[in-house]
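Entry 14. Ran structure prediction on the chain below.
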Amino acid sequence: MNVISNIWKHPKTSTAGLLIAIASVAGVLSQQGVTLGKAGSGTVVSLAGALATALLGLVAKDPETASQQVSRPAGQQAKLGAWALIALLIPLPWIQGCSGTTVAQDIVNWTPALQSAVATVDSTAAILAPGDAPIFSAATAGFDATSNLVVAQAKAYLVNPSASVLAQLQAQIVAFQQQVNASVLQAARIDNPASQQHAIAAIQGVGTIVSAILSLVQSVSSKAAVARMASESSIKLAAVEPYFNPSQSAQIIAAHYGEPVALARVQVAQAELLQTSAGF
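Output, structure tokens:
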């Protein structure tokens, strides 16, 4: 009953939330090739997403009477405006159209952060309880070698964004993702709460960047290639997501792209939804 009463008490915010949901779901369906039929020169899904985004802008600017403006808390108005802005700023799949070269450069731009995150992992064992350090070291033993391969493959793809080089990058980033996921599950077995927290936070730093690179690779891959990549992912995102802190991932994305953490949080959620829908 509280949910229903909140909808009636805050119709504008509820409408905005519904439109954000429609835009997000339309983005996922479009990314997966679901059209629901044609609408003019586009598709029903892309039309629904575009209309939701446009209506969201109108809702955010909907004129109110003086009495309504006084009665509505300032915090609620600011929150609604912020969420509307976030939704409008999200790069929607049906309007991206990024070239292979652009994506390749974005991937390469992530490599210094990836190497730094792996270095953090290397130094984390020293701050864990003596009995926990060996477990963590064993779980993350291959990070250095695998990250170096990803960096080298990303640079090769930037120089030559061909299908053959992309296929190698696809295989390498999936292998790293699986390595990270396996290490999370191993680190979760650490009994000492403080050690476990430090261990998983360090691994998540690497995992967030690997996930960002995977999303970029996914954006320039064919449906068949994405399906193949997903089939090679035996440890799914759903198995490790409960151990991750969404705020940490959002902060990493926000710092890299120089954007608000609130926007990054939505983008992280959207990327996870796309990856899960693809079978990762």
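Residues 84 and 188 are 37 Å apart (CA to CA). Will compare against last week's run tomorrow.
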